[in-house]
Amino acid sequence: MGWLLLFLAGCVEIIFALSLKYNEGFTKLIPSIVTAISGGGSFYLLMLAIKTLPLGTAYAVWTGMGAVGVAILGVFLFKESIDIYRIISILLVITGIIGLKLSDNY
User: Fold this and answer.
1) Residues whose CB falls within 8 Å of the CB of residue 37, separated by 6 or more in sequence, listed in order
2) What pLDDT sits at residue 104?
3) For position 18, what pLDDT does the model report?
4) Greatest extent of the chain over all pairs of C-alpha atoms, in Å
5) pTM for the whole structure
6) Fewer beta carbons within 10 angstroms: which end of the chain, N or C?
7) How far is CA 92 from its chain centroid?
8) How far apart are the C-alpha atoms of 41 and 77, rounded to whole Å?
9) Which residues of the chain have pLDDT under 50?
10) Looking at residue 25, what is its pLDDT?
């Protein structure tokens, strides 16, 4: 159950990070509400996940999922550049997340 909660927390973290771009410094109401709700929701789900998962593992996976998700979506949503170094870096983070999952004994 902890890994499912952590996965959900990571997904909500992606929504949170993307909403930061759209709320334009908290000047747009709906994106600002999305930021507040998704930020709180992501932290809450992470808090639940660390009840059964090691803190270091959970936090690294949570931030890694957010970083990878936002980096990939940034290319499509915001026309951010994509090159071989960016792709390799994203793959390294994904490899780290998989490694942490495989090393977990829970």
Assistant:
1) none
2) 77
3) 97
4) 45
5) 0.91
6) C
7) 15
8) 23
9) none
10) 94
Looking at this protein, which amino acid is placed at residue 56? G
Residue 90 token pair: 């994203």
Domain count, the chain: 1
**Which domain does 63 fall in, by range?**
2-103
Tell me the three state secondary structure of residue 53: coil
Tokens of residue 31, six digits: 């994106």
- 37 contacts 56 by C-beta, under 8 angstroms: no
Question: CA–CA distance from 27 to each of 3, 31, 78 (Å)?
Answer: 35, 9, 19
| 25 φ/ψ sector (left φ>0, alpha ψ -120 to 50, else beta) | left
- Separation of alpha carbons 91 and 33, rounded Å: 32
The predicted-structure confidence for 36-52, as pLDDT tens digits, reads as follows 999 999 999 999 999 99
Count Cβ atoms below 10 Å from residue 60 Cβ, excluding itself: 16
